[in-house]
Design goal:
Blueprint (H helix, E strand, L loop, with lengths): L7 H32 L11 H9 L3
Length: 62
């Protein structure tokens, strides 16, 4: 867009939209992973995590 001489406002708007889309995709991936940790529904047969372990893992994302 920049190379095409588009307006700065258009470029920033598109970058913001892409950023939000990536954030949503990332949160979906994390939510799915945490759900698997809670239920213990792993392909490798791992045991479910405790609430404290999940909290520590989730806070590591911040």
């Amino acid at each position: 867009m920049i190379e095409q001489g588009r307006d700065c406002k258009d470029v920033v708007t598109q970058l913001a939209a892409v950023s939000r889309a990536l954030d949503r995709a990332g949160f979906k991936i994390v939510a799915t992973g945490l759900r698997e940790c809670i239920t213990g529904d792993h392909a490798d047969g791992a045991t479910p995590m405790t609430e404290a372990e999940l909290e520590k893992l989730f806070l590591a994302l911040a």
